[in-house]
């Protein structure tokens, strides 16, 4: 394998771009079966889920006999917390552009960690009477779950490390890396 130079602050790649693509394809196949012939709203949660929403959407379009049509919408939330662990307080920054009542809605997230963000979204969006509401999450990080929240489609299990890349940031940096990587410990606060 070709040696690559990692950006400053990155210790090692923990999930490669190929592994991410394969996980998106697996999720897309399961989602396509479930929503075959139905109109689906993929609801990406910004900013972290930007890339997985785009790639999962395109992987879904490649599966024969999937949803009759796929629409994209986005919602932006942020969780308060310290530099690298969220507190559980979730704040809505930007709502969907279209109403979801009567629609089949699939929330798309990059990661579920303590679970507060997805729990908040499922409760808020569930109150709007969608025809169905499920969640697809690329990375499940089950080690510090604070609330029990259902996730219907999981791409991969995340190691118990602070990771960045493919949408995940540290102080807004590293989101555009095409892989998931571990930060050097000296970058993080003690
Ligand atoms: C991250 C991530 C999820 C959430 C998961 O978002 O994108 O939305 O945290 O964490 P939880 O399960 O512990 O609640 P963040 O609030 O950092 O905003 P971002 O997507 O803009 O990075």
Features of the shown structure:
3 helices, single chain, 190 residues, 9 strands, binds 1-O-pyrophosphono-5-O-phosphono-alpha-D-ribofuranose, 3-stranded antiparallel sheet
Question: How would you describe what is shown here?
Answer:
The chain is of the alpha/beta class and 190 residues long. It has helices spanning 17-34, 50-62, 116-126, and strands at residues 10-15, 39-46, 69-81, 86-94, 104-112, 132-140, 153-157, 163-164, 180-183. The chain has a 6-stranded mixed sheet with strand order 4-3-2-5-6-7, with helices on both faces. Strand 5 (104-112), helix 3 (116-126) and strand 6 form a beta-alpha-beta unit. Helix 1 (17-34) crosses helix 2 (50-62). The chain starts with 9 loop residues before the first strand and ends in a 7-residue tail after the last strand.
Helix content: 10-25%
Q: Main sheet?
A: 6 strands, mixed
Can you list the strand order of the major beta sheet?
4-3-2-5-6-7
- Oligomeric state of the chains? single chain
Q: Treating each run of at least 4 consecutive H or I residues as one helix, how many helices?
A: 3
Shape: globular
Please state roughly what percent of the residues sit in beta strands, choosing from under 5%, 5-15%, 15-25%, 25-35%, 35-45% or over 45%.
25-35%
Which small-molecule ligands are present, each listed once? Answer: 1-O-pyrophosphono-5-O-phosphono-alpha-D-ribofuranose
Distance between the termini: 34 Å
Stretches with pLDDT under 50, minimum 5 residues = none
Overall mean confidence score, pLDDT? 94
Computed over alpha carbons, the radius of gyration is: 16 Å
What class do helices, strands and sheet pairing give? Answer: alpha/beta
The helix/strand series, from N terminus to C terminus, equals EHEHEEEHEEEE
Q: What is the number of beta strands?
A: 9
